[in-house]
């Protein structure tokens, strides 16, 4: 029956389904699978944030409908974060809106600003909602290179010249999920100038702003003078404060886009549960040592994972940021593609990863490995991978039973 619905017809089969089904079958058979697939933080939310949630929930006045665009204190806290971190001034009344995670914000803004026939420029590979938020809204997506360099800028120029109608918006995501690539302020200056020149909106996904490992610190596109004329940026509490399940994010920047998102949200939700908003305010305004701790934790995991993979004969790049290793499939398995290779890795190394195809067709030569297990479990995964690569000949994979439909990637 769902084939009759236009918007559902535009969604391809869920490429993670086969791997998820194989993972579920292995666990049902009592196999110990190290799950490095979904980017779901395994560390607890810092205690002072949880304590504020508990305190707020004791007040019955917080149990009613909340504010769809975010309680005033939360919006002021986000503006304070931007002032401290990026030296960017935001008006909490007109340039900030709270969202139910950045994913909801991106999807609802897509619905607010695009119509069937509109063209949206999206890097490929990229996080699925960047593409499918607009596809669900009825727009058409044109893929562009995912690297923050001249190749992307040249592709943007071609897209404007050859797209009919002219593109409505451009998505950028640095540090990138899944690649971990970072962009510098000079690149953002080029993007803002391009967008102004061609009257295109820019939607920047900065969910991994605080997950970086060297001296190079991820900037905000809003640091570019005049960026708020064309750009809006999405941030999230999920990775920064280990609050993925709390579903708290933000959009900030261009007042016209913020107003459009706020208006759509006013019809769809009453905002996050007020105690969650109160606790999120405490997170942004309170001590930030927990961010340093989180960064050290992921750096240690990254170093163990990358070193171990290279020792096993799997040469992978060292991510500058983010919580993933974007790993090219070893040469002798490239013919399998990312879904079949992921299934092979699960069956023979007992390690679950995310197929790169799930992030766009140009990701099919890679798999995404999430650093969401402790170093003991990561070393266990590395032993399985090392043994698999040492003994396997890259032969065909036995096909598992057909997998059921599944929902889109969540993190």
UniProtKB/TrEMBL annotation:
Keyword vocabulary terms for this entry: Aminotransferase, Transferase
Keyword check for Transferase: yes
Domain Aminotransferase class I/classII large: 32-383
Keyword Magnesium belongs to the record: no
InterPro entries: Aminotransferase_I/II_large, LL-DAP_aminotransferase, NHTrfase_class1_PyrdxlP-BS, PyrdxlP-dep_Trfase, PyrdxlP-dep_Trfase_major, PyrdxlP-dep_Trfase_small
Annotated Pfam families: Aminotran_1_2
Cofactor: pyridoxal 5'-phosphate
Matches recorded under Gene3D superfamilies: Aspartate Aminotransferase, domain 1, Type I PLP-dependent aspartate aminotransferase-like (Major domain)
A GO MF term: pyridoxal phosphate binding
EC number, as in UniProt: 2.6.1.-
Family: Belongs to the class-I pyridoxal-phosphate-dependent aminotransferase family.
Protein name according to UniProt: Aminotransferase
Species: Teichococcus aestuarii
Lineage of origin: Bacteria, Pseudomonadati, Pseudomonadota, Alphaproteobacteria, Acetobacterales
């Amino acid at each position: 029956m769902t084939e009759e619905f236009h918007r559902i017809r535009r969604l391809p089969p869920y490429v993670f389904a086969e791997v998820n089904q194989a993972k579920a079958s292995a666990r049902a058979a009592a196999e110990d699978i190290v799950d490095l697939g979904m980017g779901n933080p395994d560390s607890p939310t810092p205690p002072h944030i949880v304590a504020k949630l508990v305190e707020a929930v004791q007040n019955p006045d917080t149990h009613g409908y909340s504010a769809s665009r975010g309680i005033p204190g939360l919006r002021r806290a986000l503006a304070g974060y931007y002032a401290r971190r990026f030296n960017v001034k935001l008006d909490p009344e007109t340039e900030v809106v709270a969202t139910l995670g950045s994913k909801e914000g991106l999807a609802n803004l897509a619905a607010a600003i695009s119509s069937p026939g509109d063209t949206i420029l999206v890097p490929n590979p990229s996080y699925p909602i960047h593409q499918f938020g607009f596809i669900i809204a009825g727009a058409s997506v044109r893929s562009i290179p995912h690297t923050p360099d001249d190749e992307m800028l040249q592709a943007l120029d071609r897209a404007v010249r050859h797209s009919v109608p002219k593109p409505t918006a451009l998505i950028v995501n640095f540090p990138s999920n899944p690649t971990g690539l970072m962009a510098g302020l000079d690149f953002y200056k080029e993007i803002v100038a391009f967008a102004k020149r061609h009257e295109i909106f820019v939607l920047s996904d900065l969910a991994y702003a605080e997950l970086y490992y060297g001296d190079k610190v991820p900037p905000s596109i809003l640091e570019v003078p005049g960026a708020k004329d064309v750009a809006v940026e999405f941030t999230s509490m999920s990775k920064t404060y280990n609050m993925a399940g709390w579903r708290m994010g933000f959009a900030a920047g261009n007042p016209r886009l913020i107003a459009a998102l706020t208006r759509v949200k006013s019809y769809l939700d009453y905002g996050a549960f007020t105690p969650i908003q109160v606790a999120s305010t405490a997170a942004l305004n309170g001590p930030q040592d927990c961010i340093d701790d989180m960064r050290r934790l992921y750096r240690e995991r990254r170093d163990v994972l990358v070193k171990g993979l290279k020792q096993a004969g799997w040469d992978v790049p060292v991510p500058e940021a983010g919580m993933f290793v974007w790993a090219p499939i070893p040469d002798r398995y490239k013919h399998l593609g990312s879904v079949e290779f992921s299934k092979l890795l699960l069956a023979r190394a007992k390690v679950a990863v995310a197929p790169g195809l799930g992030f766009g067709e140009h990701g099919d030569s890679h798999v995404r490995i999430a650093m969401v297990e402790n170093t003991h479990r990561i070393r266990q995964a590395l032993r399985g991978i090392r043994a698999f690569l040492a003994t396997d000949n890259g032969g065909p994979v036995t096909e598992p039973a057909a997998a059921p439909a599944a929902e889109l990637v969540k993190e």
